[in-house]
Automatic annotation (TrEMBL):
Superkingdom in the source lineage: Bacteria
Single Gene Ontology BP annotation: organic phosphonate catabolic process
An example Gene Ontology molecular-function term: hydrolase activity, acting on carbon-nitrogen (but not peptide) bonds
Coiled-coil ranges from the UniProt annotation: none
Protein name: Alpha-D-ribose 1-methylphosphonate 5-triphosphate diphosphatase
InterPro entries: Metal-dep_hydrolase_composite (IPR011059), Metal_Hydrolase (IPR032466), Metallo-dep_Hydrolase (IPR051781), PhnM (IPR012696)
NCBIfam families per record: PRK15446.1-5, PRK15446.2-3, PRK15446.2-4, PRK15446.2-6
Species of origin: Candidatus Chloroploca asiatica
Length: 392
């Protein structure tokens, strides 16, 4: 496939008008100017911008696909296929489905241990049939040690591709403001505040000390490191917390909730992840660090979908349009940055010999994803791309 007359975003520059050749599953060549046209499928790229396929390091959407409303459950395989289509149409070619290994949340069926195991197994069984490369990101809640035996088993059998260490005990981390936590949980779950406060008291009584909560995390992190997996921390709020997770082998800092934590993660050479919704809206939905503030300070390497796939492309182009970064830098937050954090050497950049995972975007007031290519084959192709593509 030959894509002609297209704007190409490279890691450090933009080719305003060029061409790119795909052979098999790889990028064969690209250059500025006119292409030599041969007997091959040709895509007219005028008015479009070519970027690498986006990589989502943390997306919580599968749980909501399975149970979009409380008590309304859908089959896991159906949910995976439907999410797969949404991610492809959003320009995401590799995604890490963030599954919660967090068994105390009884109001949410998707966080029961048996459901989490089934989700993990279904992803691996269905992967050959999917449009995108869907992987498993295990979110290990260190305050619920009951999940550790099953998580350890899934790690040892190679069914986990990324581990993050989380502590959602109220009073620190994401929920360091307990009053905000009670209000948020009451609104989210649509239950009285006194019910949340009662649960909170029980949870704090069972949580134990910081040292007790994190003792088991050391064993799980050591097993993940032995399996060669990247390890992330989650919602760090202090330098001391970053120091703790770094000693456990964490090389990725997901969603630091304060500037102090983000700065400490940068000093330690960790890859820093912020949310696409946060970057797009300009504010954290839970009142924590603004992703735009962190990007402007040079403290972000990756943007993640978090809970909305469409935000990645809008956030990346929006940051450049508003002058917070240049376009290669902002596109790198959803491509090269995640690839580096996840040790995916063949992904995230446009270069000869790398995987032909690519997106064609119409850049206007709102960027529109027109086509997504994975391993050299279109997996999302709207009517605009169908009209632009010759078929030899």
């Amino acid at each position: 496939m030959l894509i002609t007359n297209v704007r190409i975003v490279l890691p450090t520059m933009v080719i305003e008008r060029g061409w790119l050749l795909i052979e098999g599953e790889q990028i064969a060549a690209f250059a500025e100017g006119d292409a030599v046209v041969g007997a091959m499928p040709i895509v007219e790229g005028r008015g479009l911008t070519l970027i690498p396929g986006m990589i989502d390091i943390h997306g919580d959407m599968l749980e909501r696909e399975i149970e979009p409303r409380l008590g309304a459950d859908f089959p896991i395989d159906m949910a995976i296929f439907e999410l797969d289509k949404r991610l492809a149409a959003a320009g995401i070619t590799t995604a890490y489905a963030a599954l919660s290994f967090w068994d105390h949340d009884s109001h949410d069926n998707t966080r029961r241990l048996d459901t989490v195991r089934l989700m993990t197994e279904h992803i691996h069984q269905l992967r050959p049939q999917l449009l995108i490369d869907l992987r498993v990101h295990a979110r290990f809640e260190v305050s619920t040690p009951v999940v550790s035996p099953m998580l350890g088993d899934l790690l040892e059998t190679g069914q986990i591709e990324l581990l993050s260490l989380m502590d959602h005990t109220p009073g620190q981390g994401q929920y360091r403001n307990i009053e905000r936590y009670v209000t948020s949980m009451s609104q989210w779950r649509r239950i009285p505040r006194d019910h949340v406060e009662e649960e909170l008291g029980q949870r704090l009584a069972q949580a134990g000390s910081l040292e007790e909560r994190w003792a088991l995390a050391r064993d799980i992190a050591a097993l993940a490191a032995e399996m060669g997996l990247p390890i992330a921390s989650h919602d760090d709020d202090t330098s001391a917390k970053v120091d703790l997770v770094a000693t456990l082998g964490a090389t990725i800092a997901e969603f630091p909730v304060t500037l102090e934590a983000a700065q400490e993660a940068r000093l330690r050479g960790m890859s820093i992840v912020m949310g696409g919704p946060n970057a797009l809206r300009g504010v954290s939905h839970s009142g924590n660090l603004s992703a735009r503030e962190a990007v402007a300070a040079g403290l972000v390497d990756c943007l993640a979908t978090d809970y909305h796939p469409g935000t990645l492309i809008h956030a990346a182009f929006g940051l450049a349009r508003e002058g917070i970064t240049d376009l290669p830098t902002s596109i790198g937050l959803v491509t090269a940055g995640p690839a580096a954090a996840l040790n995916m050497a063949e992904h995230g950049r446009i270069a000869p010999g790398l995987r032909a995972d690519l997106c064609l975007v119409e850049d206007g007031r709102l960027p529109r994803m027109r086509g997504t290519i994975r391993n050299g084959t279109p997996i999302y192709w709207d009517k605009v791309m169908w009209q632009r593509a010759s078929r030899v």
